[in-house]
Amino acid sequence: MGSIVKRLVIVSNRLPVGIEIEDNKIDVKPNVGGLATGMRSVSQKYDSLWIGWSGMHAEDLSLEMRKKTDEALRKEKCLPVYIGKEEIDKYYYGFSNRTIWPLFHYFTQYTEYYQEFWETYVDINKRFAGILKEHLRKDDVLWIHDYHLLLLPRMIKEEFPAIPVGFFLHIPFPSYEVFRILPWRKEIIEGMLGADLLGFHTFDYERHFLSSVRRLLGYDIEFNRINLRTRMSIVDAFPMGIDYGKFHQSALEHRQKSGKDRLDIQKDIENFLSMSPGRKLILSIDRLDYSKGIPNRLHAFEHFLNKYPQYLEKVTLVMLAVPSRDQVEQYQLIKKEVDELVGRINGAYATINWTPVWYFYRSLPFEELIDLYSSSEIALITPVRDGMNLVAKEFIATKTEGRGVLILSEMAGAAKEMGEAILINPNNMDEIADAIHHALEMPAEEQKQRLEVLKERLQRYDIDKWAGDFMDSLLEVADQQQKYLAKRLTSKWEKRMFERYAKANRRIFFLDYDGTLVGFRKDPKHSRPDDELMDILTRLADDKNNRLVLISGRDRDSFTRWFGDKPFDLIAEHGVWLRMQGKDWELFEQMGTHWKEIIRPALQFYVDRTPGTFIEDKNYSMVWHYRKADPELGAMRALELKYELTSLLANLDLEILEGNKVIEVKKMGINKGKAAARILQQDRYDFIFGAGDDWTDEYLFEDMPAEAFTIKVGMINTRASYIVNSHEAVRELLRKFVS
Length: 739
Ligand code: ADQ
Prior knowledge:
By secondary structure, the chain is an alpha/beta fold. It contains 25 helices and 29 strands. Helix 3 crosses helix 4, helix 9 packs across helix 13 (366-375) and helix 19 (531-542) packs across helix 25.
C-alpha cells in the first residue's frame, strides 16, 4: 500500500509538535494527546506533510521568528498555519470548544451559539484550505482530522476533485435529535461530505451521522454509501487503537528498573503500598474536561468508602487531571468543583497514614505515566461521554503480570470493544461502588482471563492497523470515484454526439420522465411538465427526422392529459401500454390483474403503519410511494416490504421494481428495455439516444444497441455510457440538439 501513496498530507488543528521560544532560540517538542500520539507513527510511515496550528499566536512572532519557526518545523515535516489571538478565541475556544465540543458530547446546556464564533470558524477553515491549495500536489492523499475542521473537506474537494480526501472524527457524532439543534447544521454536514471517506470510532456515531445526512439533505444512502449525485461518500467505523508495542514494552522495562532509577512518583507509590499489606491503588487519568465524569467518579468513590468501610485506609484513588482549555468558563468551573470535592473527601476521611484521593493537576512525562499505569491494579474511567478513550486501552497494554482490572463507562467509545472490562453507567453511583468492590475482590485467575482477551484484541487492532485500514479504504473509495469520473460526460464526447446527430437522418429519443426531465416532487401528481420542457420536447419532435418516445413507469392518465396532443409516442407502466402519436393506447402485453387483490392488503398494511405513504393503483401494476414519509422510517419499511413481498410473490409470476422512493409490483418480464427493443424493430435508426435516472431505466440501457448514446442522471452503478448530475443537465443537452 505504501508504494501507492506518494505523499500523505495530514491536517489537524494542532501540529504534533509544539514550539517554545527562549532568547530567540526555537525548541520543538512533541505534543501529547490521543491524536498527536496516534498519527505520529502513521506520518512516519509515508512521505508526509502535517499541516496545523503551532500553538503560538501569530502576533507574538516577528517576521524573522516566523521564518525560523517555519524552518524548524519543516525539519519535522510540519507546516504551520498562523492564527491570531482573537481568532483563536473565536475559532478554537469559541466555536470548536464552546459550540461543537459540548453539543457533540450531549452537553446542550453548555452549548453557545454565537454568529461571530461561526464566522471565524468558517474563516479559519478557509485559511487551512488556502494553505492546502498552495501546497497540495496532484498525487497527494489527504487526511483531515477532527471537529475543528468540519468544513475543510468540501472546500478542498471543490478545488481538487481527484485528490482522495479522508476525514476522521475523534469525538462522538451525536444523535440527529441533538445535532439538529445547531443553527449551522446543514453547512457542517455538507462540509464533511466533501470527504470521500468519513471515519468514526463506532458504528453508533456512523449511524447518527447517516441519519442526519438523510434527514437534513435527503441524499440516497445504500448501506454506508451516500450517493451525492456527482460523487459519493463512504462512511465507516474505525475504532482507533494505540501503539500497543510501545506501552507494553515500556511496562516491561519499568519492572526491571532498579531502586535508584525509580522516579519520584514511583517512590511515593511504593512507599504507600508498603505501609500495610493489601493496599491498592485505583488510577484515573484524563484531561480535566466536564465530559470525563470526574465529579461522578469522586462521588462514587466516596459512596464506595461508605458502603464498604473495610477498605478505609487500604485503597487510594490516584487521580491525574491534565490541564485543558482553561480559558473556557466551563473548564474553570469544573476545576473548582473537582478541587472542592477532593478537599471535602480528604477532609472527611483522611487519617495520619492514609489519604483517600491523591489528586495531581498536571501533565506527566511518558515514563511517569507508565509508572502510574504499571503500579495500579485498577483503573477507574468514568466519562459521561467520550469518543473513544485511549487511556483505557493504554492501561490494559501495561498489564504485563496478568493482574489488573478496568472499570469503564459504557458511554466511552472504547466500551464497544472492551466488553471484558467491568462496564458501568457513569451516573449510577451504587453500580460504580459495587464495580470497585468487584474489581478489588476479583480472583487472580479471572483477572488474567479477562486481560488476555483484551490485550490480544488491542495488540491486533493497534494504531498501525487502524491507520492502515483507514488508508486502504480511502484509496479504494478514491479508485471507485475515478471510475465514475471516467463516465462523466466530457465536452469531447458531447461534440462527437452532436456530430453524429447532425449527420443522421433517422433519429430516435427514448426519454424517461420523472427524475430525468423533471425533478422529484413529494406528490407525483404535481410533477406536470413546465412550459420550458414542453418547448424543448416539441421542438425536438418537430424535426421530421426525429422520433420522440417518452418511456415511463407512470400510468396512462397523466401522460394523456399532458402530452395527448403532442407529436410524441408514449409508453406507460414500464412498457405495458403504447400510444403512437395521434392514436389510441394499445396494450403491448396481455395480462390479468387477479394478483392485485393478493398484493393490496400487504401494501395497505404498510400504508397504515407508515405516515405519508400511499398506494398508486396502475392498470397492470401497484406502487407503494414513500417519498413523503419520514426518510429513515421510509427506508426501513421499504426494506421490510421488499422482504415480505418476495415470499408473497413466489408463485405469482410477479416482480418487484425498486424505483426512486417507490416500490412497484408488476408482471414479470415487462420492462422499458423490451418495449424499446420492439419499437426499434419497426424502423432503422442511425442515431439512438436514451436517458433515465433509476434502475428501471437500466433495462432500457441494456437493450440498446452498442452505438446508442445513453445517459444516466446520478451516479449509481450504471450500464449507460455517461453520467450527468441532474435533470437540468439532460434538458441542457436536449436544448443543444434543437439549437
Ligand atoms: P482525549 O479527550 O484527549 O482525546 P484520550 O483518548 O483518553 O482523550 O487520550 C488522551 C491521551 O493523552 C492518551 O494517549 C494519554 O496517554 C495522554 N495523556 C493523558 N494524560 C496524560 C498526562 N498526564 N501526561 C501525558 N499524557 C497524558 C480525543 C477524544 C477521545 C479519543 C481521542 C482519540 O476525546 O475520545 O479517544 O481523541 O481519538
